[in-house]
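Support request from a user on the community tier.

User writes: "When I paste my structure tokens into the form, the page sometimes reloads and wipes my input. The last time it worked, I copied everything first. Here is what I submitted, just in case something in the input itself triggers the reload:"
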């Protein structure tokens, strides 16, 4: 009877477990267990499991880095902040220099490696390096890592022992500028740039005259530029059809923006020169009077404005052109240094002069409709080392 009773209970439990199965296995992101082997260190285990020493110590309630053979260590099965690589501290290194080299910050390195005092690191000390999208190879960083047509790319080279350095991009040679702990340069991506991978080469010469070259690739993505149809009156259409005139004026502007001033004159983000409604975006493909759509789009941003409305300098710089042109009308151009220029077209008045150093927010002219224009507005252009770029990006990013 007792055996039958036990069998009944067993059968009931079996049926119960079939309907309500045992608890599932723990989720995959639960900690796993690792047994310490001879020669192991916390850093070696952290690197193997793509985590950090600080995370292992916290997970295992360890007060020191000391571990023993046979000890059971809990390790995360997954991590959302896996280090990209490891680095051994060399003589003369600082956390700041290592951070610059790998496109991160001293704080991120300190937190990732459980360093209480960022000023205290030792030769031979292993460090986990956090992931960085800008990092393309040791010592070279791109920001943003994927460029867009009409965008600006910041290239940083994390070395300081060069006698000279420059980069070449899209056939143009751009000097690298020395900063605290690294060199940098700004490259403008043409609004007509081919989509895909573009080559960039960095040329350096050290104090002994030894030359070196590094080649990297930049991914260039498309920008969805709009298309617009513009109707010009016969008097304005004549200017547009005078290709020789347009070429001469374009060559004149290109010669101005090809000059490179070695000092950075601006600081922080640029400001809009006029706060009005945008009537034409940078890069817009245009069709004039029913003609074919141009392969290369609008050179800048157009803002609606009343005739005579004030226009202000977008950033600190030196005025390098202030005069009348036939296509761009009354034109002011400002050199901000390091190959960065801005231009203000179609002005009714020019309120500055060549050679003047202007500050952001300083009056430089007034809205008009001179040159090839269908009504009062401001056309605002920016150049980065010879290429037209989207000026609005410079109001949203602090570069460099």
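"...and here is what came back when it finally went through:"
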């Amino acid at each position: 009877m007792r055996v039958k009773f036990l069998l009944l209970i067993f059968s009931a439990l079996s049926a119960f477990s079939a309907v309500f199965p045992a608890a599932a296995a723990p989720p995959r992101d639960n900690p796993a267990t690792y047994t310490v082997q001879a020669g192991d260190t916390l850093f070696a285990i952290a690197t193997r499991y793509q985590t950090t020493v600080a995370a292992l110590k916290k997970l295992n309630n360890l007060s020191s880095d000391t571990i023993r053979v046979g000890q059971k260590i809990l390790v995360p099965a997954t991590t959302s902040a896996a280090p990209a690589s490891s680095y051994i501290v060399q003589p003369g290194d600082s956390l700041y220099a290592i951070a610059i080299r790998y496109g991160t910050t001293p704080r991120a390195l300190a937190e990732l490696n459980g360093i209480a005092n960022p000023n205290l690191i030792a030769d031979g000390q292993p460090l986990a390096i956090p992931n960085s999208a800008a990092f393309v190879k040791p010592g070279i960083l791109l920001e943003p890592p994927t460029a867009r047509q009409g965008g600006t790319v910041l290239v940083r080279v994390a070395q300081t022992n060069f006698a000279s350095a420059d980069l070449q991009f899209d056939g143009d040679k751009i000097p690298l500028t020395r900063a605290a702990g690294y060199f940098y340069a700004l490259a403008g991506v043409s609004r007509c740039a081919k989509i895909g991978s573009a080559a960039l080469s960095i040329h350096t010469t050290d104090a002994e005259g030894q030359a070196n070259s590094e080649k990297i690739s930049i991914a260039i993505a498309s920008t969805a530029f709009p298309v617009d149809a513009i109707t010009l009156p016969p008097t304005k259409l004549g200017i547009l059809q005078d290709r020789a005139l347009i070429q001469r004026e374009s060559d004149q502007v290109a010669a101005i923006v090809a000059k490179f001033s070695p000092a950075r004159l601006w600081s922080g983000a640029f400001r809009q020169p006029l706060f009005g409604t945008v009537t034409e975006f940078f890069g817009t493909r245009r069709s004039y009077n029913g003609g074919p759509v141009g392969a290369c789009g609008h050179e800048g941003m157009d803002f609606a404005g009343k005739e005579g409305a004030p226009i202000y300098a977008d950033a600190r710089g030196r005025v390098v052109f202030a005069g009348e042109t036939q296509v761009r009308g009354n034109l002011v151009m400002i050199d901000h240094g390091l190959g960065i220029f801005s231009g203000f077209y179609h002005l009714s008045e020019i309120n500055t002069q060549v050679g003047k150093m202007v500050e952001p927010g300083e009056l430089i002219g007034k809205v008009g409709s001179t040159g090839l224009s269908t009504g009062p507005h401001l056309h605002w252009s920016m150049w980065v080392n010879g290429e037209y770029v989207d000026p609005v990006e410079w109001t949203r990013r602090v570069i460099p």
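Agent notes: The reload is a front-end session timeout and is unrelated to the input. The CA atoms of residues 113 and 277 lie 49 Å apart. Confidence is low (pLDDT under 50) at residues 1-29, 78-84. Escalated to web team.
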